[in-house]
């Protein structure tokens, strides 16, 4: 009882203290925008006079926000309420009521600045720039602007794992812009373009946190230090602060600027008179490194010290990018029609010329890549209507379809290449494609003569650097894939194991797997065991090849060298092998998250359609690589969810490829019998016809349908017999437009368009006639939405 009284007394006291210290806005207080007759505008001002809460000009009306006043009358907006709402008209008012801050027109309530359940009692604009609302009872804070940052954090404010910074469209329009910065699953603070998939290929900056402990927040203190939890690691240690003259004071802010760069600013006040803004730190020194600085089909170049977006040759601007000389967010489109290409069947290379740009790079996957001469690359793109542009690097020709993303001219970086663009013959390249010194023109209209010239001048140096590049490119690629994720020991492979296949002795593997005790799976060829090797206990998976033909060692070695030559993020990597007499074992990287079958059918893990589309694309890219990009085309022959493995980031990796030719003839027939019953094998298998890569497309189609519907291809425990076989049931639902029958689980905001797209692609892939099935390349284009999907013909049932 007594302690209760003391408690109440304490609360009351602290309430009084709070009243005396902070509160300057009481219930029923009103502010309004400047009205037409006078420039008078009311706002709530902090006691220092530096921060104001009120209406500021936005579009043809006003927005509500907090700004920092400069001595020269300038306003730096640091927070905006409901930033994406339309401008507020000038006859509105903002009133503090028990229900919070209400936006009113006359007596009509138009909106509420914050939503909270507790009744509000008073509010205050603090000197830190934090606007706080106190509860009616007691002194607790029911709402504060510091907990809802927009694009800025101020000294004393924290960016936590629950919120993010989102850049503004422009310095005058504070609505949601083009980039965001947020904590990622692995505790890194990472910046992405706003509408990207927010996966590592889209990231352009990361805090690269070094320590293992969980990170809770990024804090900016009032001395200008920008640090993670308890200054364990800092982005900025502001040592200047100590040496500041006594008659000055500083306010710091960290802002995700319009261009997507995180910068720390200091506003220096001399006796609260005037202010100087200095940029103390920025995340990236070169704006061209910011993905999404330029829009689609445009590229960034920073050759004269300012970053600038330009359309590729043959393209013209398609949006109203922000004004200003750097053309930020410029998007471009082709200035000619692709139809001519499709109708003419141009075999004589008359339709297009190739224009090239040096030292280019962009993101995304080529749909096709092969080593060849530049002339052949040039020809190959000219005659391919899907080819939007080609990138020629180190003797490798990679063709890309449009749109091109994150293009960038990177003069001093190693992983760049010669970009080739098609322009119609007779087309005059206008505008400023040449930007560097005239000695080294970037754009060369590429007739035969020009081509020879380029070949002579560049191939020599390229081939000289070739060996070096192949190695470095591969490592850059690997490090990019994993760049923004904490690496587990197993994926952090050393140099020697990366470059060549290692030969293990049987005893070594017995030791590594503790005598083959921990079986993690049983594939078509034998059991798979978990083990560890090396000083840092790298995790491996050892496959004992039991059911393989008694071929000589040479054939076995030939097969596994072909497998070892594959390098793709969606394929499980072969690390080594062991051959001792009849014992044959393969050593793979260990992929930690089980199989796709397990993920889809066994776990209850919620997998939004978007995530499943990503998995489907991962698998498609792996298969496409096997079909089109390896030195020797590899037909998987046994694609199914059981041998698609998932890593810790749920990236799908195909395993068991390249082994088909090692299987015993009778075994493969047995297998065929067995597998037919589960339906992954193409009909031509059963008829013992020639098996082509289209057999894999069939299996992929089944896997895709399983991913879409999240059920097995054959399921007996179903309400009606027509639902037993997934492919025919899916076709039935598609034909009768009853897609909802295919998804038995709950999903909010189901994206039916995407679901239908995936379904149509799946149905095309499982056609009986192999020639009706699309290539894996087209599967990817269709899934990504860049190619129209034909109506799938009906299936034989
Ligand atoms: C302008 O706003 C002020 C303060 O709200 C008010 O006193 C004044 O009457 C307004 N003038 C007009 C023309 O609305
Ligand atoms: C405020 O202005 C809008 C147009 O700007 C008008 O439609 C509305 O009726 C006005 N409301 C009041 C209460 O004057
Ligand atoms: C920011 O974090 C610090 C340390 O965790 C905490 O003391 C402080 O109250 C936080 N600031 C706000 C505004 O929540
Ligand atoms: C992001 O997507 C939304 C919704 O599709 C769109 O309104 C917005 O303009 C896009 N933003 C950018 C920067 O492309
Ligand atoms: C910044 O300060 C923290 C702790 O105060 C320290 O651990 C860290 O090493 C400093 N970083 C730099 C770059 O000086
Ligand atoms: C602030 O102090 C510096 C020297 O420490 C002096 O030169 C300057 O005039 C002072 N400014 C004001 C406004 O007093
Ligand atoms: C602001 O910077 C300018 C030039 O750097 C300098 O002349 C001026 O004194 C500074 N003003 C303040 C308030 O520090
Ligand atoms: C251009 O690149 C140089 C060197 O990387 C860098 O110092 C400079 O800040 C960049 N300019 C812009 C505007 O990003
Ligand atoms: C760009 O803006 C102008 C007027 O501001 C408008 O007429 C034009 O249609 C816009 N163009 C595009 C591509 O949005
Ligand atoms: C590239 O490197 C050269 C020489 O090392 C240097 O002169 C040039 O400024 C660099 N260019 C950029 C954009 O960094
Ligand atoms: C776009 O194409 C038209 C017709 O071919 C041509 O006149 C125009 O110059 C081209 N625009 C640019 C920017 O190249
Ligand atoms: C190309 O850009 C340079 C420098 O930005 C400029 O001086 C020149 O006039 C431009 N040429 C054309 C054709 O726009």
Automatic annotation (TrEMBL):
Fetch the InterPro entries from UniProt: Bulb-type_lectin_dom (IPR001480), Bulb-type_lectin_dom_sf (IPR036426), EGF (IPR000742), G-type_lectin_kinases/EP1-like (IPR051343), Kinase-like_dom_sf (IPR011009), Prot_kinase_dom (IPR000719), Protein_kinase_ATP_BS (IPR017441), S_locus_glycoprot_dom (IPR000858)
Question: What sections of the protein cross the membrane?
Answer: 451-477
Q: Which reaction does it catalyse?
A: L-threonyl-[protein] + ATP = O-phospho-L-threonyl-[protein] + ADP + H(+); L-seryl-[protein] + ATP = O-phospho-L-seryl-[protein] + ADP + H(+)
Recorded superkingdom: Eukaryota
**Bulb-type lectin domain location:** 29-146
Q: How does it sit in the membrane?
A: Single-pass membrane protein
Broad EC category: transferase
Listed binding positions for ATP are 543
Coiled-coil region: none
EC number(s) reported in the record? 2.7.11.1
Compartments where found: Membrane
List each copy of the Protein kinase domain by range: 514-787
Where is the secretion signal located?
A: 1-20
**Domain (EGF-like): residue spans on this chain:** 284-321
Name the keywords, alphabetized. ATP-binding, Disulfide bond, EGF-like domain, Glycoprotein, Kinase, Membrane, Nucleotide-binding, Receptor, Serine/threonine-protein kinase, Signal, Transferase, Transmembrane, Transmembrane helix
Q: Which Pfam families match?
A: B_lectin, PK_Tyr_Ser-Thr, S_locus_glycop
The family note in this entry says: Belongs to the protein kinase superfamily. Ser/Thr protein kinase family.
Protein's recorded name: Receptor-like serine/threonine-protein kinase
